[in-house]
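Internal ticket - ligand job 445, tryptophan:
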Amino acid sequence: MQKENWGTRLGFILAAAGSAIGLGTVWRLPYVAGEQGGGLFFFIFIALLLTVGTSLLLAEFVLGRSTKEGAIEAYRKVAPKGQWHWIGIIGMIAAFLLLSFYSVVGGWITTYFVRSFTGNVTNPPDGDHGALFESITANPWEVGLAHLAFMIMTILVVQMGIKKGIEKASLYMMPALFIIFLILMIRSLTLDGAWEGVVYFLQPDFSAVSSETFLFALGQAFFSLSLGVSVMVTYSSYLDSKASLPGSAWSVVLLSVLIAFMAGLAIFPAIYAFGLQPDEGPSLIFVVIPAVFQQLAFGEAFFMIFMLLMLFATLTSAFSLIEIIVTPFVRGKEHLRKRVTWAVGLLIFAMGIPSNLSFGLLADFHIFGLTFFDAVDFLVSNILLPLGALLISLFVAYKMKPSIMQEELLRGSRFGKGFYFIWLIMIRVVVPLSIIVVFVSQLIQ
Ligand code: TRP
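stdout (structure tokens):
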């Protein structure tokens, strides 16, 4: 019973791809690929994305589109008895916590973008990019303000609604993201010595592949597609009933793979061409990349557009994270959207403050040996997301009516019954089992 819908199927696909393509896809994935066997990791990742990942993505789509409801009511509508709607509530909590620290990184990107206009990021006064990053992240006022600015940008878009807000922003940001990546990739690949970076990223290294590689790839496949928090349930609930779900899912998956691939080919060749080493974690984009651009002709301008790209990628993911919390509250009361979005957004900002301070004032405050930022990240990425993904796949597989599922999955698509049966086996058996394996292994790690 939702009044508003996506204006076009393309708008839906770009918004869903925007959710999927975020920091995890453009920044963590290429790095992990380089570490874990290069091209072989990438190949395993794509294989898992196309099988297990796409199956779960389709499960979220089927649930959302058939019920036309968001995180809580979708579960209630299918199974009115029992406590199934807690799956949606867990997703909303996970999204709340995820955005609380995701937006901190969004803030760093914002402040780097603004600073890049002054020219002192790629060329720090004392020449030390690492020291600059540390001094910026340790300064509570600067990162606090940038964090707030990032959340306000997110709120301003989401409060405009699905079509006028999220869809419209995605229709500009996603093509821009693609074009910027293309420019950066070409620049990077045409540098002298770029080949070494391509080799690092893509050359299959069989000795680096272990069972851990599969686990990394599987976890990354779910994370990259934003699965497990009912984001895709929510987004597809706004999709009109004629659009083909398998077709939309392929488009989202292919766009994610393409961007991840382009990210690797933009980042590594440039790093190697200038004789630097890829680095783990935040320092890859905030320390190594500025050092790369420092050596490049027009580096400051390239850095600026790189940060703009990161900002778009992060924002479109943030829209979806806040929308999943907003949707249930404005159900049937769309006039409340503005107020609810501001309230939720500012609460998420408040929740993010201790994560933000983890790099300065609260650096010595530890929970189970982790900083606040890392503890929330651990709770979300290693517990809430896999748990949510498991529950969603079991719920769709065993609680939904097969006839409805089949109808919903196949309507408007080129596929027949065989596709439905394969998908059913995937979500009944393969997907839950693979999530359990990743889950357990991450916990005992
Ligand atoms: N897919 C996003 C990325 O690659 C991160 C993410 C994980 C996410 N789960 C999510 C985004 C749920 C939105 C909703 O960065």
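Auto-summary: The radius of gyration is 21 Å. The mean pLDDT is 89.
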